[in-house]
Fold this sequence. Notes:
By secondary structure, the chain is an alpha/beta fold. The protein contains 15 helices and 11 strands. The strands form 4 sheets. Strands 6-5-8-9 form a 4-stranded parallel beta sheet, sandwiched between helices. Strands 7-11-10 form a 3-stranded parallel beta sheet. A two-stranded antiparallel ribbon has the order 1-4. Strand 8 (189-195), helix 7 (198-205) and strand 9 (217-220) form a beta-alpha-beta unit. Helix 4 packs across helix 6 and helix 13 crosses helix 14. The longest helix is centred in the C-terminal third of the chain and has 33 residues, at 407-439. The protein is elongated, with a radius of gyration of 27 Å.
Amino acid sequence: MDTTNFFHSVTLDRDKCHGCINCVKRCPTEAIRVRNGKAKIIKERCIDCGECIRVCPHHAKQAIFDPISVMDSFDYKIALPAPSLYGQFNNLDDIDLILGALTLMGFDDVYEVARAAELVSDATRRYMMREDIKRPVISSACPAVLRLIRVRFPELIDNILPLHAPIEVAARVAKARAAEKTGLAPEKIGAIFISPCPAKVTAVKMPLGTEKSAVDAVLAIREVYPKLISLMRKVPASVDMAGAGRMGIGWGSSGGEAAAALKERYLAADGIENVIRVLEDLEDEKFYDLDFVELNACSGGCVGGVLGVENPYVAKAKLKRIRKYRPVSCNHLGQEDLSPYTWDAPVEYEPVLELDADIRTAMEKMKMMREIEGRLYGMDCGSCGAPSCKALAEDIVRGFATEEACIFKLREEIRGMAEGLRRLSSVMPKVAAAETEEKE
């Protein structure tokens, strides 16, 4: 498979890697192996959820994002702060302090992603009124979950909400307004998203649902945070920039999007392991009375992204505090047409987990896998560098490993060799004695 088509915001620093298997065991798509004492990321399987960054004790996994200096590349710079940014600060009652600090940081304008989230929520409510849609509808806001469904749960693709994520809507609306206001060409206007997670970096560089993202660059919250802390003290009290209500800000934590859909029969799950469990149950058709499913790969929702600075559950509590000072919703669709919010391109199944394109060959390889797995010990210890015995069997079939990679198989062979040597050592004196008698 051609891996050049796969951009990834999660990378590996081999010099820092100690070859432990923390990342191997926690990867939701089994995209990591340890070979020759170092981890290796299988590019076509990675969904950039950042779970390996979270669990690596040696900080060998890193996220790619743009430097703050990227702002210098544009004549007019628009900041797109994620709702989760507001949950990073202590004793914050007025989000105008953050928005004002962004302008002091060098941005010419600020358009809150929370405002776009309210527009997407309105579009979602209208979409949910249709009778011809497949239920339950699964949110498309989390790019890591969207990519997970694309590679591992293809039967659920038709359930995905075919609307752009708020980040994309925010960039399109903000750039259109800036172009009208300034008269500048679109390429001179930069829409720069301030992100809590690496998956959104990938969503910008290699988008799903559209051919090209309107977002021009992505900064990490943890890089912007120190600058905002110092600048917030200089923001005038007269600044009035906030344009999002409770619904939009609520998108920053788990359950916020589902609640904004105004549907009683909804499910909200966060944390990649919980997400997988829900998707498996959806695939098995265990849910019959749900209208909407919100899934976030990070614990706590977007506030749990690895590019943030605050504990996700503390940040969630802070968002709740901020929301109570805001109106319910400040942004609504002005037209019935949902085409500006719907996907420009379909999201299609990516068969990265298939053993072979030919079904007959794939079945033969599957049979080989089961035979090999049956010879293994079923310990799923990860010592071989694969996350499970089944994964090792798959690697063997694909030609990437051998059965000797299993330490239990290796121990069995060593025991056999030791037993052979023991028997040989007990027989050798008798053989030597017999040869001596013959010579005499």
